[in-house]
Amino acid sequence: MDFQLSFLMSSNVLPLLLQGAATTVRLFSTAWIIGILVAFLLVGLRAVPNRWIGRIVALFVEYHRNVPTVVQIMVWYFGMPEILPQDIKLWINRGDTEFLFAMIALGLNVSAFFAEDIRSGMRAVPHTQLEAARSIGLSAFGALIYVLLPQALRISVPPLINRSLILFKDTSLAMAIGVAELSYQTKAIENLSFRSLEVFFASTVFYLLASLALMGIGAWFSRRFPPAFKG
Amino acid sequence: MIDLQHVNKWYGQYHALDNVTGQIKKGEVVVVCGPSGSGKSTMIRTLNRLETIQSGRIFVNGEDIYSPGHDVNKLRAGIGFVFQQFNLFPHLSARENVMLSPLKVAGMSKAEASDLAAELLTKVGLEHRIDAMPAQLSGGQQQRVAIARALAQKPPLILFDEPTSALDPEMVGEVLSVMKQLASEGMTMVVVTHEMGFAQEVADRIWFMDAGKILEEALPRDFFSAPKHPRAQRFLADILSPKMVGHAPDAAEALA
User: Model ipTM?
Assistant: First the structure.
């Protein structure tokens, strides 16, 4: 067995790996932002006292939690263009279609989990906190922003970080529709060079280090903003 | 300042407030007492609309607070409310708890609000714990922060809903003495409490409630020396010399 680190550094391999890693990071961060925004929207919609809105949100959440993520990605990539109007289809096809659909699919997928994590954090804040916030003259919105969310989000952070890690690893599923992220590039290099050991070693180290960095951010946040408010 | 007119509230079949009528003048301290479940807390919570009512009217400073379109945030900003369980905001320090309403409701600057918080926390005897988190404070200290938080609204009226009931006995005194000081400064106060010593010493008037009704309204000396309503007589007899029940004679002796 010969492990050649120099192979990874060569000029026809390293750029591909770096490009793949960059696409992975870009896919993760854009999907994460979509996820957190849609999650807040879902939490807000759930609070609307309308049975049908509640049911639609519940259906959305259950679909994204119970259908395999890779299937959700394929539904967007292969299924949605059938439904979308011609103009939008053409507009999407002008850009990076694969990346765009993977980003939407992963973003919506993670939003369902984020929404549940935020909602359970909100439910962990006692109702008396809302009363106290309103009793000092804060509006419902003020109570939410200054009193309820700061407490709820502290409770939600560990599960949110956990889910973010899963999202980071799930970006590799986008290779199923041909997004040239890190796993796709790894496989492509391996196919051409047969240097499986080196190239999978490189991508493993990247995923591991990036995940550890995410966990580090989570640990720092939990120390800085402890949910139990102990002194 | 406060005028309740034929206020009724039901929880389903349960008649929580039964035709409650009464007035409280500016600068008065009214102590509301009565057995558990008599509607005391429900009544005091209607005064800043933490509860809804089904009929009757409540006026605060001449305004009908349950009339449609009445600005509930403005009403509450002008009334301090002190809860039995303190309900401090656990993610904020003592100072930040006191600052929140001046900052976000009254629109004060950060520096002004911070100075005000320091001043009020000093007033309640917590100048050494200004930047402590609620979890680092004893129950009595937390309740004093809660009183400072209410004072930060610069309210002409403060409502106290059993402010000492959740405290260890040795911490009751520190909270009551702050309340006595406020009363002596002319604050209008409505206090739901079982502290009869406080009622005797500080109250201008006593409201005795049972089954959602105000059964007796009296001056403290009249109420404690000669309660008129039989239910009030029984209530006072029970709380001033509690009867030991069951196998209690030993315990009663031990306590004597």
Answer: 0.87
